[in-house]
């Protein structure tokens, strides 16, 4: 063990080093300052060790998502598919399709609903950088009204898979059977279990949320930046006050819409 020298750094400086250290740096700093008697240093070492343990657990969780993906999808090209925006009363249905390699692991990969908006943005950027292929599809409200949600979902998934530009050996889809591809396999809660499905849920969510923020600038009375098209109290009141916009799904608004479209 390296002898500790308290004259070189203050306890506060050591604590700051530990708070910003990587896993390998924590190991080295822990060895160096293990016998430092200062309470702040020992507390910082304990905090860093807990962070290492949490990181190991998180890494194991993400690794399991890649392992299960390969187990279910086989050795070939796997496309993960997920949708967002099935339930809102405004805005498009959005489907993402993503192909990931077995490495590198994408830290923090998870069901998009379990991540903060800021975390989704960060992970989506990482997905864009390392994914082998990404496909995206949007089905607009008027078409959802015309063909129904089930048909809209199948169409969006077909488009998103095609947009990846690959011929998949397996298509892994979150939820129940959709019958959108001959090599389809579905996994309930797959967005929390399969790496590429989680990635698809994140890129779809980030893309759709950005679009709803743009719509908010166009239709500010409806609070789309906040509600993302879901039937929040403010959104329902805006519909009652101002009617429906072209981005509303009329078949979803029958219980609270009054009057014709006003835009």
TrEMBL record:
Metal-binding listed as a keyword: yes
Main location class: cytoplasm
Stated name of the protein: Ribonuclease HII
Biological processes, Gene Ontology terms: DNA replication, removal of RNA primer; mismatch repair
Cofactor: Mn(2+); Mg(2+)
Gene source species: Lancefieldella rimae (strain ATCC 49626 / DSM 7090 / CCUG 31168 / NBRC 15546 / VPI D140H-11A) (Atopobium rimae)
Keyword Metal-binding: yes
Enzyme Commission number: 3.1.26.4
Subcellular location(s) per record: Cytoplasm
Alphabetical UniProt keywords: Cytoplasm, Endonuclease, Hydrolase, Manganese, Metal-binding, Nuclease
Function text: Endonuclease that specifically degrades the RNA of RNA-DNA hybrids.
Coiled coil: none
